[in-house]
Amino acid sequence: MFIGRQNELKLLNQLYESNSFECLILYGRRRIGKTFLLDEFAKKTNSLYFQAQESTDQYNLSLFSQKVLSKFPGPSYLKEFSNWHDCFQYLYENLQKEPCVLMIDEFPYLAYQNSSTLSLWQEFIDHSLRKTKTLLILCGSSISFMESEVLGYQSPLFGRRTAQLKLEELTFFDAQPFYSNFCYEDQIKLYCTLGGTPYYLSMIKSDESADDNIKRLFFSNYGYMYNEMGMLLKQELREPAVYNRVIQAIACGKTKMNEICDYVNESSSKVSKYLSNLIQLQIIEKHLPFGESEGKSRKGVYQLYDLGFRFYYRFVFQKQASINTGLGDNVYDQDVKPFLSDYLGYGFEKICIQYLVKENLKGNLPIQFTRIGNWWGNNPKEKKEEEIDIMADDNMNLIIGECKYKNEKVEFSILQQQIERSKLFPKYKNYHYFIFSKSGFDFDIHTVDKAFHCITLEELCK
């Protein structure tokens, strides 16, 4: 079953129907759904799909030759091509006849084994493909390679793309078909433990409880998620042991550079390199207070962007010894489940931001904001540090949001608290307040001032 990615499919179809040559650079981290997207797109198009292997250049040429000759049969004596130039020439002669999608998956594997690969494809595009109605899709999982060696200005392929698409994780709402049979609280629990990676979400079994799904995937040494994070780090990075420590530090609440350095016992220059690589892989992100910019603010903190990594390194990584001896269920019941409600608050906040972004695109909010985030800083009146879960603005108007993932209903006093917080930002003309509550409100939300929008769990998730 194909879930989500409707905007991405729409882009692919637009490129295919342009009646001219197009080159799309498609990339994103492993398991994010690139190949699945290409498979779905290929069902309704005239296409040739090739997945490069982590092998020799000659082996990949042989495999590609077989794909080309299967799609465009030639003389019976022609079994494969001896070089890429001859293969490209034969392919060009056939691509002139009708529009076609040429998909090259795991493109970096070709370049790793042949230093001329990028130049060969540049020549193929410039002298042949541009004369056809081909949609060329170069796809890769190595984000650093795709951004520097394919999209970078020093790349031979620089300037050849007509579009690029970095595939992101699914939002809670796009991913809902994976867990639609569960109650809303369990939907949030599953999303906040597995994250928005489609492959992980596809392993949810609707005939098991949310807790049993989590136990099966994370708290058994046979579970898919038990070794997944470590394997991904080994595939993408050198020194995975140090990266494990960096991620674990952030998962345990060490979010500032000096705190992370102390935790891993490494210099700031070295840790900075590790953090940069993890940001590029979309495992962590550097977070700034709303309205502040990189380079000017010293308040940046590091957070785990990927909710699956966040859950694994918060609860699983340090309990591997117990899990390996078959005590995974006990670990979950005693060391995870009692603390899960508090832990889910961060993911709930992320889902609330996704909700506002979704509604903003539909024009359903009192303003159409141009930026959104969180804010933290000094409250000079109260002489204390203040945190605001959500802020969004259009320069003249401000949205302030509060996210409460608690078992208690939100009290009426929180409305006045939001008004007081808005006074920290006096430049705005109008203020709107969104309050999200897991357990509802202890007052009639239909009688409050129209500036307040009280969102129940049902309204959020429906």
TrEMBL record:
Residues in domain DUF234?
Answer: 312-409
- Extract the InterPro entries matched here: ATPase_dom, DUF234, P-loop_NTPase, Restrct_endonuc-II-like
All residue ranges annotated as the ATPase domain in the record: 2-203
GO terms assigned for molecular function: ATP binding
Q: Which domain of life is it from?
A: Bacteria
| UniProt keyword annotations, A-Z | ATP-binding, Nucleotide-binding
SUPFAM superfamilies referenced in this protein's UniProt entry, alphabetically: P-loop containing nucleoside triphosphate hydrolases (SSF52540), Restriction endonuclease-like (SSF52980)
PANTHER family listed in its UniProt record: ATPASE (PTHR34704:SF1)
Q: What is this protein called?
A: ATP-binding protein
Q: Which organism is it from?
A: Amedibacillus hominis
